[in-house]
Write a structure and sequence with these properties.
This is O-antigen ligase-related domain-containing protein. Keywords: Coiled coil, Membrane, Transmembrane, Transmembrane helix. InterPro entries: O-antigen_ligase-rel_domated, TPR-like_helical_dom_sf, WaaL-like. By secondary structure, the protein is an all-alpha fold. Among the domains are: 340 residues, no CATH class; 153 residues, Serine Threonine Protein Phosphatase 5, Tetratricopeptide repeat (Alpha Horseshoe), CATH 1.25.40.10. It has 29 helices and two strands. The protein has a two-stranded antiparallel ribbon with strand order 1-2. 45% of the residues are buried.
Length: 706
């Protein structure tokens, strides 16, 4: 007999703790609402407090609600995600960068807790709709911040740069993918609601479409047709009609104002842009309502919606290609040029191909368990084909593979397959059209970001990951009464998750305290209180022992104070801390430069030279590496010459002069490895490097002539 289901309304514990559950639910909505507004939670300053809040909310939820449930089990998806977190934890023990590996592990514990919370607290249609409206409302505010920054009504750093809208994510491609994901939630919710809120949601779809276009994200643009096709194909007839009306309205609204709005962005007085935005929203809404009215009057056979229109849309790309020039002529020139530049031969595509090639080189050296979190940003300069700067691999899956190896990637692959299967099964089993529409919209929203992550680093922004895994958790909540019950791993998951959460909360608090202590130390030094500042830096090291910059800051300040006070014990301690910073951050350019200067100024010549050689080893295609190398070796050669150590001085000078040939060899390798375009950077012999080489030649000639 075929299983049928509706969204479950949980009883028992929820009835007994209704007030607490309500407060927990609204706390969860807040936790899912605000992440986009703080630079996408990409930086530790904003991320750490969110870690702490999530851990506290989970503890309250678990001890007040979850542990009192009877017969509660965990899905295969949750088990797979739990194993994914374990893979990050295991990789941390062998990580190339312990600090970043721990921080990345904390992020994935955070996502696991978000999945548990949304699954546990989103237990009926009303709550699910409130969740979706919360995410849409957050999206509307993100769009307004982007538009307001573009029109210079207010300033939000990085929200609009280079003619591209980044909004709060500060990166236009992530913003474009976000607009795409929220747009389809809004399309569905519009058809699910009645009354004034319905029209507000409908009007918001124009804003999402405007932000989507002004993001200039070619990857997101390319994704729109296939994800729109999937959405339309699987939503019930009522939602198909709503999508058609809204989409036609959105296109009409854009057609009416896009040229005018785009022109305003380069005008002196940009305030009129708000008027064009309102006109666009109005046109979009009116056309949508007219289309809906026509749909009610003209009763088309459902086959037209379910079969003819989908087949017809498959012809749209062909028509678009044939009429490309005509269509592009109606668009602003820069948008048209951006569309025309979409090809596999585009420079950004070529650049990403190089990233991916270099990523595979790292994977080959760390195949099983990976490098630990932060592996790409730590190692990529050793493997890069030319001297680009990119702390992200621009492919989430390759970056994941680098960090947790082939075993971890297999776990993630299984996790995604489980998610797709769960979505398919729920869609087949749900009877209510609104349930089918909800699960389709959520799936399309999630999959649009997952697909876009094949060419970018959307999920490196914690706000995007929280959005995605929050929706996945909500889907698990929808499916709670149809999923297969499997209690085999219940105790393992329960106690394992509690242990992870304790670790998560402790490390998050310690990291935040370290960050705060370091900032206080900087302020105290600026206020001419260096000894108090030194104590704060030492606190930061205690709170975050794997963060090399805190140890380096303490060492530098302690060394200065120690010399000033002639405190030999403090000077020796500063040397131990600089050693610690090098040990924890041996791949870090700034750490190596700082340590080289420290060692040289404190008479540790051999250590200074070893550290500079490490700089060349780990940053071989950075032009400034050779400026620093020639500078240090020249200074030490001059000191040796002054001290009468002629042989040692000549050895150092040979190293300086050899840089000239080294740079030529590196550039020749680049020419052979990389397809030439404007983005390829060669190693430069900077004026300072050349000056150092010339001085070395002159000094060598003088020494040899003596």
């Amino acid at each position: 007999m075929k299983q049928k289901a509706k969204l479950l309304k949980t009883k028992g514990t929820y009835e007994e703790n209704r007030t607490l559950v309500k407060y927990l639910f609204y706390a969860l909505l807040i936790l899912l609402f605000y992440p986009p507004f703080f630079r996408g939670l990409f930086f530790q300053k904003e991320l750490m407090p969110t870690h702490i809040l999530t851990a506290i909310l989970f503890f309250v939820y678990f001890f007040a609600i979850e542990r009192k449930r009877t017969g509660n089990t965990y899905t295969k998806f949750e088990i797979a995600f739990f194993l994914l977190v374990l893979m990050y934890g295991i990789a941390s023990f062998i990580a190339v960068n312990k600090n970043l590996a721990i921080q990345e592990t904390l992020k994935y514990i955070h996502y696991l807790l978000i999945i548990f919370l949304t699954k546990g607290l989103i237990n009926n249609r009303e709550k699910l709709i409130k969740l979706l409206i919360t995410l849409i409302t957050a999206g509307i505010l993100v769009i307004f911040i982007g538009i307001g920054s573009a029109l210079e009504t207010f300033h939000y750093k990085g929200a609009f740069e280079g003619g591209m809208m980044n909004s709060t994510f500060q990166y236009h491609n992530a913003f474009g993918a976000y607009c795409l994901a929220v747009l389809f939630l809004a399309y569905m919710v519009y058809s699910d609601l009645e009354g004034k809120l319905r029209y507000a949601i409908g009007a918001s779809t124009f804003l999402f479409m405007l932000g989507f276009v002004l993001s200039y994200s070619r990857g997101a643009w390319v994704l729109f047709p296939p994800v729109a096709f999937i959405y339309y194909l699987f939503v019930p007839i009522k939602y198909k009609k709503g999508f058609i009306a809204l989409f036609i309205g959105n296109i009409a609204g854009l057609a009416a104002v896009i040229n005018k709005f785009n022109a305003v962005l380069t005008a002196t007085d940009k305030s009129v842009g708000w008027l064009w935005m309102i006109i666009g929203m109005t046109v979009s809404t009116m056309i949508c309502l007219l289309v809906e009215k026509a749909q009610k009057k003209v009763k088309l056979n459902e086959k037209i919606y379910n079969l003819i229109i989908p087949i017809g849309t498959l012809m749209v790309p062909i028509v678009g290609l044939l009429a490309k020039d005509k269509i592009l002529s109606f668009l602003p020139a820069d948008i048209g040029q951006r569309i025309q530049s979409i090809s596999f031969g585009a420079e950004t595509v070529t650049e990403r191909t190089v990233f991916y090639k270099d990523a595979f080189a790292i994977i080959r050296d760390y195949p099983i368990l990976g490098t630990g979190g932060g592996g790409w940003s730590t190692l990529y300069r050793m493997y890069q084909s030319y001297g680009y700067n990119s702390t992200q691999a621009h492919n989430y899956y390759l970056q994941l593979w680098i960090e947790i190896g082939t075993l971890g990637m297999a776990v993630f692959g299984i996790l995604i397959l489980i998610y797709i299967y769960n979505t398919y099964r729920a869609y087949k089993i749900f009877e209510e059209p609104s349930d089918k529409a909800k699960i389709t919209a959520m799936f399309v929203s999630v999959i649009s970001i997952l697909l876009h992550s094949t060419i970018d680093f959307d999920l490196s922004l914690a706000a995007m990951a929280i959005f995605v895994w929050g929706l996945v958790g909500a889907q698990l909540g929808m499916e709670r009464n149809i999923r297969e019950k499997d209690g085999k791993f219940k105790n393992f998951i329960v106690y394992g998750t509690l242990g992870m959460t304790v670790f998560f909360l402790f490390m998050s608090i310690m990291s935040y305290m370290a960050f705060d202590a370091a900032n206080q130390g900087i302020k105290l030094v600026q206020d001419n209180q260096p000894e108090l500042g030194m104590k704060k830096f030492k606190q930061a090291v205690r709170f975050a022992p794997f963060e090399p910059t805190y140890a380096a800051d303490y060492a530098n300040l302690a060394n200065v104070i120690g010399k000033k006070k002639q405190d030999q014990q403090l000077i020796e301690e500063s040397a131990r801390y600089i050693d610690m910073s090098v040990k924890r951050g041996k791949y870090n350019y700034e750490i190596l430069i700082n340590a080289s200067r420290f060692y040289a100024s404190n008479g540790f010549i051999e250590k200074a030279l070893e550290t500079i050689d490490s700089l060349e080893k780990y940053h071989p295609l950075d032009s400034s590496t050779y400026g620093m190398k020639t500078h240090f070796y020249l200074k030490i050669a001059e000191k040796y010459a002054k001290d009468g150590k002629i042989k040692d001085s000549l050895t150092c000078l040979e190293k300086v002069i050899a840089v000239e040939k080294k740079i030529d060899e590196l550039n020749e390798k680049i020419r052979k490895k990389v397809q030439m375009n404007n983005m390829v950077r060669f190693v430069e012999t900077t004026p300072k490097t050349q000056e150092n080489i010339n001085k070395a030649k002159e000094l060598m000639q003088n020494l040899k002539s003596q």
